[in-house]
Specification:
By secondary structure, the protein is α+β, with helices and mostly antiparallel strands. It has four domains: about 220 residues, 2-Layer Sandwich (Heat Shock Protein 90), CATH 3.30.565; about 140 residues, Ribosomal Protein S5, domain 2 (2-Layer Sandwich); about 80 residues, Rossmann fold; about 130 residues, Four Helix Bundle (Hemerythrin (Met), subunit A). The protein is about 35% helix and about 20% strand. The strands form five sheets. A nine-stranded mixed sheet has the order 1-6-5-4-7-3-2-8-9, with helices on one face. A hairpin with a 2-residue loop joins β15 and β16. α21 crosses α22. It starts with 5 loop residues before the first strand and ends with a helix. About 35% of the residues are buried. Bound molecules: adenosine-5'-diphosphate (ADP).
């Protein structure tokens, strides 16, 4: 019936993901079996869930299972499941396009050179296309549960695939791998057994295979279950090895990397709950925009839903894992979940256990780990922070109850030393007379380090947190204080540094001494600044601009403008350093036009030091040139 064969070309990005999978995983090709078995198990989970409300779906094919069928002569291995199956359109969409729009966008944005970077595989996940690691042709025949139609998808991964009517007895899917010559071992009993034992032992559905047995002289075959078929999370921790957890994680997430850490727990009592949650080592590229999480909800071992946001908040969307409740009804829907008190209990547990895991990691010293192919001494918490800190911070905003625990988990750069610093360490290093936690925000770390606003703080030996993530200032605004010590922006309000009476008096005298000059500068800059005053914030620079103590900082304003918000211009305070030679010269200047020029230059310099542009860059250039011409 060649007339009913339709040819389809793969979406361009599929070819790219396909070649990425095949090239990067070549030396680990046995992972194909884990991936295909995990797809089969998911398909059975889905069927099992639907069958809760639609008993007819099971029909007389009640024993849910995965079968591996080998044919050494034909050199094929078939992964068969009696799960949910795929319709014609689903075969085309699921196996011919990349559904995840993020993956497609990323592929499109990469250059040809970047696409050769095999480490990218970690960001895409492995999945169905790994079949082509061992097969030069793959045939998928599927019957969707509840349907009479059977369709066959076939491809040699050469840019296209075929769809035609197929034949198959019950519902479910057969993935037939026509093995490459060098992979023909996978049609033999022992290699297949070995791979299942290694990668898929914990799969919660039986994986069955026909095996040969010799009894006396007679050779017999019989169906055997190759795995222990007990959901991993229900087993006692003491029984499980790290390798088993790692394999479970990989099959759950399709991630190629080992997880960074995990937590496995049970709650017993009025509520019964088991959870196994993983922190991935590498963030997916679309983590920040992505709103979905990766915690699967099970009820009494029955899969209920993926990405259950009701049980894991958005700010924990990097988590992967499962939660299995004994108390929710099996026919639970999103609507019920949203209202149910059990859900709130589960969410609390998920948040609490994750925070405990993070706290444990944060308290851990350096360990040896492979980073970018090299063995390095690292802190696991810092690896986590580099990948996911950006998302965790959102929790400070969204989860009042966890705020204090989250605050202790935040990490910042600091003027004290390179690397990440926690607030507890900062507080521990504060000199006795220092009352506040100081911070400055800028577009980059060098800009923050060089900020004039922190000159005097540094000179006094006060540490300053250097913030470069646009969200950081909002985070500390929300926190207000840590351990009773208020956060103070070095670029806002009066710094109110602890001062002796003599110092206070000296400052007042300077303000008086400079009074008339300050007024003249103010007049010259009236369009741009609100007030001009002397400062004790500066040691080396002549001037800086500061915002009012209340309201958002100039850096926050810039971040908002860059994000497209229209904000009214807000005048700031110009602070002059009374000990600076240039500022002292103003005292003796009687030409008003010259003073206005100098005032404008001081103002523009202060802006430049923040990484902002002067209001009239051309005028700034002219003034500098004129000044140079006078030498
Ligand atoms: P992922 O599992 O990460 O979504 P895959 O490339 O492995 O990506 O699979 C793509 C999709 O094809 C799956 O999401 C699923 O909808 C469908 N699929 C794959 N294998 C099966 C199967 N055995 N039964 C039913 N659907 C399947």
């Amino acid at each position: 019936m060649s007339s009913s064969v339709e040819k389809h070309v793969f979406q361009a990005e599929v070819n790219e993901v396909l070649s990425l999978v095949v090239n990067s995983l070549y030396s680990h090709r046995e992972v194909f079996l884990r991936e295909l078995i995990s797809n089969a198990a998911d398909a059975i989970d889905l069927l099992n869930f639907r069958a809760l409300t639609d008993h007819h779906l099971l029909g007389d094919d009640q024993e849910l299972r995965i079968e591996l069928v080998r044919d050494e002569q034909a050199r094929t291995l078939t992964i068969r499941d009696n799960g949910i199956g795929m319709s014609r359109d689903e075969l085309i969409a699921n196996l011919g396009t990349i559904a995840r729009s993020g993956s497609k966008k990323l592929m499109q944005s990469l250059t040809a050179e970047q696409k050769k970077d095999l480490s990218l595989i970690g960001q895409f996940g492995v999945g169905f296309y790994s079949a082509f690691l061992v097969a030069d042709s793959v045939t998928v025949t599927s019957r969707k549960a509840g349907s009479d139609e059977v369709w066959t998808w076939q491809s040699e991964a050469k840019g296209d695939f075929e769809i035609r009517p197929g034949e198959r007895r019950g519902r479910g899917t057969d993935v037939v791998l026509h093995l490459k010559e060098e992979a023909k071992d996978y049609a033999e009993q022992w290699p297949v057994r070995e791979v299942v034992r290694k990668y898929s032992d914990y799969v919660r559905w039986p994986i069955r295979m026909e095996v040969e047995r010799t009894e006396g002289d007679a050779k017999q075959t019989e169906w055997q279950t190759l795995n222990s078929a007990r959901a991993l999370w229900t087993r006692p921790k003491a029984e499980l090895t790290d390798a088993q957890y790692q394999e479970f994680y990989k099959s759950l997430s399709h991630d190629w990397h080992e997880p960074l850490a995990w937590t496995h727990w049970k709650v017993e009592g009025t509520q019964e709950l088991a959870g196994l949650l993983f922190l991935p080592a590498v963030a997916p590229f679309d983590l920040v925009e992505r709103r979905k999480g990766g915690v699967r909800l099970f009820v009494k071992r029955v899969f209920i839903m993926d990405d259950a946001q009701e049980i894991a908040p958005e700010w924990l969307r990097f988590l992967r894992g499962v939660v299995d409740s004994e108390d929710l009804p099996l026919n639970v829907s999103r609507e019920i979940l949203q209202k149910d008190a059990t859900t709130r209990f589960i969410k609390k547990q998920v948040v609490g256990k994750t925070l405990s895991l993070l706290e444990e990691l944060a308290g851990e010293g350096e360990t040896e780990r492979e980073v970018d192919g090299e063995k390095k001494k690292v802190r696991r918490y810092e690896l986590f922070w580099d990948e996911f800190g950006r998302v965790l911070k959102e929790g400070v905003y969204h989860d009042l109850e966890s705020r204090d625990r989250l605050a202790a988990l935040l990490r910042f750069h600091s003027s004290a030393a390179d690397g990440w610093h926690g607030l507890k360490d900062y507080a521990g290093r504060m000199p006795a007379e220092q009352k506040s936690i100081y911070f400055v925000a800028a577009d980059s770390l060098p800009a923050a380090k060089a900020s004039p606003h922190i000159e005097a703080l540094r000179k006094r030996g006060y540490e300053v947190l250097l913030m470069t993530d646009p969200i950081d200032e909002w985070i500390v605004d929300a926190l207000r204080e840590f351990d009773g010590k208020p956060f103070v922006s070095a670029a806002k309000g009066a710094l109110d540094l602890p001062a002796t009476d003599a110092e206070k008096q000296a400052k007042e005298e300077k303000q008086k001494h400079f009074g008339p000059v300050l007024e003249r500068v103010q007049k010259a800059l009236d369009a741009h600044v609100k007030t001009v005053r002397v400062t004790d914030r500066l040691t080396d620079s002549p001037a800086c601009l500061v915002s009012d103590e209340h309201g958002i900082s100039a850096h926050q304003e810039r971040v908002l403008r860059d994000a497209g918000h229209a904000l009214p211009d807000k005048k700031r305070i110009l602070e002059l350093n009374p000990d600076h030679a240039v500022v002292k010269k103003l005292l003796a200047m009687d030409d008003e036009a010259q003073l206005a020029d100098w005032a404008a230059l001081l103002h523009d310099q202060a802006l430049l030091a923040e990484g902002a542009l002067p209001p009239d860059p051309a005028a700034f250039g002219r003034r500098v040139a004129a000044l140079m011409g006078r030498l």
